[in-house]
Amino acid sequence: MFLSRLVPHPFLTLLLTFVWMMLMNSVSAGAAAFGLFLGLVVPFLTQSYWPDRPRIHRPLKIVEYILVVLYDIVTANITVARIVLFVPRARLQPAWVVIPLELRSPEAITVLAGSITLTPGTLTAEVSSDAHSILVHCLHAPEPDAVRDEIKQRYERRLLEIFP
Description:
By secondary structure, the chain is mainly α. The protein has 6 helices and 3 strands. It holds the Pfam family MNHE.
């Protein structure tokens, strides 16, 4: 209990310490100590602005999710390059796809929208006002339902395991 009060956001503490060390471009005891000091003070001072911290049930699934997204980014870059170079504009089939969401956590929906936007050829245009669906634009989607199913299977299913 005392440790969670002292370090309210342990991942943020580690991240801030690491970022400070990278900014200093030096591995020294002084830089590490000051980085740790920042990593402890900043989350402690800002904890009142984080009343509903997201709960992560399976943190190791985050690594799997990141690897899937990175793989999809690389393959989508190749696909988009092929489309741009070899598919005539007249044959392009852009589409708007509405994806119904099972996710309810705002953080999970944000991660999903960001993952879709990071993947070349797709863009999250809007989250519905009730947060039950998102609108995605696809550069080339001959089968919009397949795009919807793939996003739900590859991304949303994994996010449902990470966020409650």
